[in-house]
Amino acid sequence: xxxxxxxxxxxxxxxxxxxxxxxxxxxxxxxxxxxxxxxxxxxxxxxxxxxxxxxxxxxxxxxxxxxxxxxxxxxxxxxxxxxxxxxxxxxxxxxxxxxxxxxxxxxxxxxxxxxxxxxxxxxxxxxxxxxxxxxxxxxxxxxxxxxxxxxxxxxxxxxxxxxxxxxxxxxxxxxxxxxxxxxxxxxxxxxxxxxxxxxxxxxxxxxxxxxxxxxxxxxxxxxxxxxxxxxxxxxxxxxxxxxxxxxxxxxxx
Length: 253
Ligand code: SAM
Known about the structure:
The protein is of the alpha/beta class. The protein has helices at residues 13-23, 40-45, 59-68, 104-112, 127-134, 144-150, 190-200, 208-211, 218-222, 236-246, and strands at 9-10, 30-34, 51-56, 75-79, 93-98, 118-126, 153-161, 166-167, 174-181. It has a seven-stranded mixed sheet, with helices on both faces.
């Protein structure tokens, strides 16, 4: 399977301890690790949690993990594609992983779909993706992904990891991010807000007047104080408030 599955393994002990510490800072009885691979991060997580669920797609790696943890009732190995695994089946959980970069965004989406069951997520991702996840409004990296995630979570970029820390080394720098769910999401209807954001950021350099042309009439756009702004100039809270105001006008958005 190899590189097709984004297999770049991390064995540097100090980094693995820092990632596990960031995931399990406070009491975390349950952690789901996505893509445990040869189990470096798994070993750092294990002493910190009472229940560890490992989701690994590669059958050879999953078999090795099964034999390593066969006498440990606190570790469950799920040989499956994480994107088709129902993460809610185990109840409230932390989610952690050195992610396969080819499916980072779908994994972040899939994790956030846990809603109130998500305690926190700590992911090692490509540096540019970490920048987009954590970006502030108005900055170059702020866009659809930033707004979607920040409507639900506080995002911290914790530290960088250079390619030399991995075997084999990836071509890009990496960074660890921590997503901590907000007590209440900024919008009551996240799927509808995501659809709205997708329209707002359709062409990032264009104004909302341009991007929302398909959703609102000309009169409605004329009455919109924000019409001449670009979506990236609004905070996530302002975008959520705008969505709340426009929803009655755009029932089929
Ligand atoms: N956690 C290990 C480490 O840090 O050394 C491995 C990380 S490696 C970047 C990504 C891992 O995710 C690989 O073991 C790969 O087989 C696994 N993987 C790739 N696609 C997957 C999927 N759709 N579902 C579950 N695991 C997947």
